[in-house]
Design goal:
The protein is mainly beta. It has two domains: 113 residues, Ubiquitin-like (UB roll), CATH 3.10.20; 61 residues, Alpha-Beta Plaits. Helix content is 11%, strand content 33%. It has three helices and eleven strands, in the order ββαββββββαββαβ. β9 and β10 form a beta hairpin. The two termini are 26 Å apart. One iron/sulfur cluster (SF4) binds next to α3. The site of one iron/sulfur cluster has 12 residues, from α3.
């Protein structure tokens, strides 16, 4: 039986106005179909119209735009795909600089990560090297730029940034079915 209310701590930071980041905590009705994205939409609608976050496709099965990538309880996630939990800390994806709150600049990668923000729940990615033909589709579809090609083989170069099986774009689009993404 799920609890009736989710306690949601959300990262807030406007680099143009604030001295530094802070967190606001909200109580949100927890329903079985609540996602992290709909949680944020609820907060924006009912408590704080100024909360900034991004989304695009809202996660149809064959198109995950990646715009909604955030960090939930220490694990990168696509907010439209991740089911809400009774207790959540929602932060911006650490790979990118913050524009405001959870909205990041996907063109601007953070070079020196805050070690406190390293993923607590690890993702395991395996690649069948024999099957990989170096087409680069995984590099192209990954919303958080995890992949590199090395000697015409795909290499998961930044696994800490992976949004995990709830994303799974690389695995889905690999024509050779060479990729497996799982929680470690
Ligand atoms: S999409 Fe599949 S075949 Fe293409 S480079 Fe990536 S792992 Fe290799
Ligand atoms: S599941 Fe694949 S496409 Fe999605 S973030 Fe992880 S490595 Fe990138
Ligand atoms: S809004 Fe497009 S993947 Fe979540």
């Amino acid at each position: 039986m799920r609890k009736q209310t989710a306690t949601v701590k959300v990262y807030r930071y406007d680099p143009k106005a604030d001295q530094g980041p802070s967190y606001n905590t909200y109580q949100v009705p927890l329903t079985d179909d609540l996602s992290v994205l709909t949680t944020l939409q609820y907060i924006q609608e009912h408590f704080d119209g100024g909360l900034s976050f991004r989304y695009g496709c809202e996660g149809p099965q064959h198109c995950k735009c990646g715009a909604c990538a955030v960090v939930v309880n220490g694990q990168p996630a696509l907010s439209c795909q991740r089911r809400a939990e009774a207790s959540m800390v929602i932060e911006p994806h650490w790979k990118y600089t913050v524009i405001k709150d959870l909205t990041v600049d996907f063109r601007n990668i953070v070079r020196h990560r805050d070690p406190a923000l390293v993923a607590r729940q690890k993702v395991a990615i395996t690649v069948d090297e024999d099957a990989c033909d170096g087409c680069g589709d995984c590099v192209a579809v990954c919303p958080t730029k995890v992949w590199k090609l090395y000697k015409r083989k795909a290499v998961p170069d930044d696994i800490d940034s992976c949004c995990g099986p709830d994303c799974g774009q690389c695995s889905q689009y690999c024509p050779q079915k060479a990729i497996t993404v799982a929680l470690a």
